Sequence to fold (125 residues):
Amino acid sequence: MTTNVQIFGFHDCQDTRKALRFFAERRVPVHLVDLAERPATRGELRRFAERFGAAALIDPDRPRFRALGLHVAGDSPERLLARALDEPRLLRTPLVRCGGKVAVGLAQQAWQDWVDTEKQKSSAR
Fold:
């Protein structure tokens, strides 16, 4: 696969580890951006929000969501997404990007489609 895959997530996130394993098993190069060390930028999150909407990027089941009292705050998804810039543990992870394609959470079928598409491109060359 010629395109690098970029995964935004946390080393201690089970779904992020599943994404890393998925691509490793298929010998696809991956760049992990550990959100605990380097939070996502507004532009990076905007790419995902444009495709899926701000609400899809926020995980209300995360412990950090409750700890901040957001389960009763009633903030709009856009405000929550802006807050996630400083509190990345609010995000649904992994956020996976491959070229212009993006996926939120465990999206193994989408990832497999990306891998298959790249294989078809490389075999046509």
Remarks:
- The first strand starts at residue 5 and ends at 9.
- The chain has one domain: 5-120.
- The domain at 5-120 is CATH 3.40.30.10 (Glutaredoxin).
